[in-house]
């Protein structure tokens, strides 16, 4: 098993919190917040219209073309209807590649070079060519009223867009429609040049967007940011860091009075999230004081009063109980047949393709339709997954793809919900990945493996032995550091003493999965603060899996007693 690679605080999706000390004043049950993804918002506004199936998962996974980008530019400028009605005969030499209504759009762009869509040279437009983040940020910046070579240079457009608050897909390389959705929502909330109105306000005035729909889209945004110190974490729409309090219990805030003064509550009735996040993870609680507070995976969210600007994370580690609300685009799941396997943050299974070679995907065309590529900028930096095992490749079309131990990662189009693994063993070349047993990826030119080893089953429980045959008892220690137990599998003699030592600034304990006749754990240490230790003695042979209660989802280990 693998340990966390950084000391930055991070919790995997679905982390289990210690609930044995619920305050007597626990508030009413949490309710689901009104949460929509950026794709749902731009679809509802009519800004992103999708294909025959609308803005579906399949549509969002498709690459974005120059023609799509041009249409969105015209739509955001209120010029789409004018372009569709254009009757001019002159056009780009490759206009025959598109249908009649799109030919009119290309003709309009050619007749209006001041709009900036002058083609790619030799009279061509290349409508089906994929666009990059740089190209789409140029579209968005110009939609806000800024001009290339007057306000910004093309080579510096991504940096310039960042000064306007447009940055969420800046590192994505060539874009897919899900990136377009995220970037477009950012732009709609941005103010147009020289004015106090947003781009969305302007589109309502131009009757491009229905006013009622626009009013319903005034959601608060939660975004994902990252830095080298704390990894990836959640922020509000202004980039202010959001925190969790380790003394809270599921959906109950223990922060009151002066604590709330220092750690103001985050609350939003309606929230817009990027497609990486899961709407079901956000809920609203009503606190003892009657105030509402937003939770993420059960953790109430807070600001820190000493954070002055976007990017500040001065609250990290304060009092050993406060940490940024971390996020990872990859986690693990488990089922009885396959054991542990990699998923995205929503629990959708990720696959490897045995015909791939080291950091090289050979899945293209129709293969890519059935096995959409996976990419995230937010890899784990804690727990059993380590950041060093993840990488990024750039595919031939310029799209980025995440790799694990060299294997490019994919979804399967027939997996419909979290936990589905219908792609397992398809064609004897597609498999989920077990982090502890992933086969070595072949280098280019070497023969690829014909199959992936079966997922390992848990080690069998050791048979009982009589006291006379037991080896002499000894003393062992298990250190707790960086949110991991130092010994993932520890083999000891019956009667041995095991001491757990916490070297983390956060509280941890060790709780046995195996239960006594009365239903209590065979062993359970207290919550240990940094520097504290506690010992247990195991006299009965067998296998004892155990976990840290506050971080049960990813802090697990095993003791085998001989």
Protein described:
With 562 residues, the protein is an alpha+beta fold. The chain is built from twelve helices and 25 strands. It has helices at residues 38-45, 57-61, 66-76, 80-84, 100-111, 133-143, 157-163, 177-188, 199-205, 211-215, 258-262, 366-370; strands spanning 31-32, 34-37, 220-227, 231-236, 243-245, 270-273, 282-286, 292-296, 299-300, 322-324, 330-335, 339-344, 351-353, 390-394, 400-404, 407-408, 430-432, 475-481, 484-485, 489-492, 496-502, 511-512, 533-538, 542-547, 556-561. The strands form eight sheets. Strands 1-7-8-9 form a four-stranded antiparallel sheet, with no helix packed on it. A four-stranded mixed sheet has the order 2-6-3-4. Strands 19-18-21-23 form a four-stranded mixed sheet, with no helix packed on it. A hairpin with an 8-residue loop joins strand 24 and strand 25.
Main β-sheet, spatial strand arrangement: 1-7-8-9
Using the alpha-carbon principal axes, give the shape.
globular
DSSP, total strands:
25
- Our estimate of the beta-strand percent is 15-25%
Radius of gyration: 27 Å
Head-to-tail CA distance between termini: 21 Å
Please mark out the parts with pLDDT under 50 across 5 or more consecutive residues, or reply none: 1-27, 446-470
Average of the residue pLDDT scores: 84
User: Which class of secondary structure composition applies to the elements?
Assistant: alpha+beta
Helix content: 10-25%
How many separate helices? 12
Sheet of most strands: 4 strands, antiparallel
């Amino acid at each position: 098993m693998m340990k966390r690679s950084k000391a930055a605080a991070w919790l995997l999706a679905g982390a289990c919190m210690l609930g044995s000390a619920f305050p007597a004043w626990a508030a009413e049950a949490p309710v689901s917040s009104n949460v929509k993804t950026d794709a749902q918002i731009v679809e509802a506004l009519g800004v992103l219209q999708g294909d025959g199936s609308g803005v579906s998962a399949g549509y969002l996974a498709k690459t974005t073309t120059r023609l799509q980008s041009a249409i969105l530019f015209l739509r955001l400028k209120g010029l789409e209807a004018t372009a569709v009605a254009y009757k001019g005969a002159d056009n780009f030499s490759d206009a025959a590649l598109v249908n009649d209504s799109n030919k009119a759009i290309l003709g309009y762009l050619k007749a209006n070079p001041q709009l900036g869509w002058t083609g790619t040279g030799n009279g061509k437009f290349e409508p089906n060519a994929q666009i990059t983040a740089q190209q789409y940020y140029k579209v968005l910046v110009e939609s806000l009223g800024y001009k290339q070579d007057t306000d910004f240079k093309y080579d510096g457009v991504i940096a310039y867009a960042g000064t306007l608050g447009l940055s969420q897909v800046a590192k994505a390389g060539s874009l897919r429609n899900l990136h377009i959705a995220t970037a477009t929502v950012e732009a709609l909330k941005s103010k147009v040049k020289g004015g106090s109105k947003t781009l969305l306000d302007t589109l309502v005035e131009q009757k491009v967007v229905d006013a009622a729909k626009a009013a319903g889209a005034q959601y608060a945004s939660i975004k994902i940011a990252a830095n080298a110190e704390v990894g990836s974490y959640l922020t509000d729409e202004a980039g202010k860091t959001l925190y969790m309090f380790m003394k809270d219990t599921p959906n109950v805030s223990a922060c009151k009075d002066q604590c709330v003064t220092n750690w103001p509550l985050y609350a939003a009735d309606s929230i817009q999230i990027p497609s990486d996040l899961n709407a079901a993870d956000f809920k609203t609680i009503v606190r003892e004081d009657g105030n509402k507070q937003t939770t993420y995976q059960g953790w109430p969210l807070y600001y820190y009063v000493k954070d002055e600007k976007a990017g500040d994370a001065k609250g990290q580690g304060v009092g050993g109980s406060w940490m940024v609300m971390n996020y990872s685009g990859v986690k693990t799941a488990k089922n009885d047949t396959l054991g542990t396997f990699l998923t995205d943050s929503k629990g959708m299974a990720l696959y490897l393709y045995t015909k791939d070679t080291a950091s090289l995907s050979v899945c293209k065309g129709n293969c890519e339709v059935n096995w959409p590529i996976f990419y995230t900028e937010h890899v784990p930096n804690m727990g059993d997954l380590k950041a060093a095992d993840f990488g990024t490749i750039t595919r031939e079309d310029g799209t980025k793809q995440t790799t694990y131990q060299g294997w490019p990662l994919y979804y399967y189009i027939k997996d419909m919900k979290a936990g589905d693994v219908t792609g397992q063993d398809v064609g004897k070349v597609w498999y989920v990945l077990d982090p502890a047993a992933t086969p070595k990826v072949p280098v280019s030119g070497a023969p690829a493996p014909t199959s992936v080893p079966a997922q390992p089953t848990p080690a069998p429980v050791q048979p009982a032995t009589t006291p006379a045959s037991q080896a002499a008892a000894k003393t062992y220690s298990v250190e707790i550091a960086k949110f991991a137990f130092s010994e993932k599998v520890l083999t000891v003699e019956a009667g041995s003493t095991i001491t757990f030592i916490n070297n983390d600034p956060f509280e941890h304990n060790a709780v046995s999965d195996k239960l006594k006749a009365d239903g209590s754990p065979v062993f359970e240490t207290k919550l240990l603060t940094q520097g504290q230790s506690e010992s247990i003695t195991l006299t009965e042979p067998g296998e004892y899996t155990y976990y840290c209660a506050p971080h049960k989802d990813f802090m697990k280990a095993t003791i085998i007693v001989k």
